[in-house]
Design goal:
The chain is an all-alpha fold. The protein has two domains: 13-81, no CATH class; 84-137. 79% of the residues lie in helices and 0% in strands. It has helices at residues 14-32, 34-47, 49-61, 69-79, 86-136. Helix 2 packs antiparallel against helix 3. The termini are far apart. The chain crosses the membrane at residues 36-61. This is DUF2852 domain-containing protein. Keywords: Membrane, Transmembrane, Transmembrane helix.
Length: 137
């Protein structure tokens, strides 16, 4: 005779719920950058000083106080994870590289455009200055 095994449902523990919540709060603050972390720390000190002290210690320990963690977190969060589908991962990497190349080309174009605009404005200024010098003489 085959015995059926019955498994009781598992519920998340209080620790896993708290760590999940804190992870979501960390992600939310990271999306908003260093000013959000500083505001959270100040509010922690205002309402319950140990929370503010804990946030300050965490910010120093994780380098969120001294570096821009927003950009570092976003770049590592989405790109480094593999989906398990090698074809899709290769397509994603190729697309991200193409987009980065297009972004760099566009930024170069904007730089050239700004340079041309600056040169045109400077040339116009020099022409006007030359006309004023001619009129004064």
């Amino acid at each position: 005779m085959h015995s059926a095994s019955y498994h009781l449902p598992t519920y998340p523990t209080a620790t896993s719920r708290v760590s999940g919540f804190l992870g979501r709060v960390r992600d939310w603050l990271d999306e908003r950058g260093r000013p959000a972390w500083i505001v959270a720390m100040i509010l922690g000190f205002v309402f319950f000083w140990p929370v503010g002290l804990a946030l300050l210690a965490y910010m120093i320990w994780s380098n969120r106080m001294f570096s821009c963690s927003k950009n570092r977190y976003k770049s590592h969060r989405n790109v480094s994870r593999s989906t398990g589908n090698t074809a899709f991962d290769a397509y994603r990497e190729e697309t991200l590289k193409r987009l980065e190349d297009e972004h760099n080309e566009f930024m170069g174009f904007l730089h050239k455009l700004r340079d041309a605009k600056d040169k045109a404005e400077f040339d116009q200024f020099m022409d006007q200055r030359g006309k004023k010098d001619d009129e004064a003489a």
